[in-house]
Amino acid sequence: MATRTQAREAVVGMLYAYDVGNDSILLLARSILNEKKIKNKQQDFAFSLLQGALKHLNDIDRSITPHLREWDFSRLGGMERAMLRLGAYEILYTDTDVPVVINEAVELGKLYGGEDNAPAFINGVLDALSKAYKSSKAVGENKGEI
Fold first, then answer.
1. Residue 118 neighbours by CB under 8 Å, 6+ apart
2. CATH code: domain of residue 112
């Protein structure tokens, strides 16, 4: 049986595929998940993450960008961008505990990050995003918008 980590790994791959031009990835998602032996609740979890991330992609990208410091969003590696998007989606739009989200993203960064410092970079960006989001929630701003 697949784990949530494996489900997230599949979602990162599909977000990457979408980013490089596979606009029909949502239509193929269930088949891809089946091929990866991700079924039942984990498949529903993965599909929900993918669907939500794609639905809110523009807002997610706008939320990530201020926390990149000296990096331009378009210069990020495709896999790093996919990992940040998934992590940001979970922080902004789900009830998953932030430390779990960040840990999962960092572990994926260790596996798929294009550079040695990818895990630290992902950690820093998602941590800054979560702190900004937490403070915006404290002052009553809308969920998903910081």
1. 77, 80, 109, 110, 112
2. 1.10.940.10
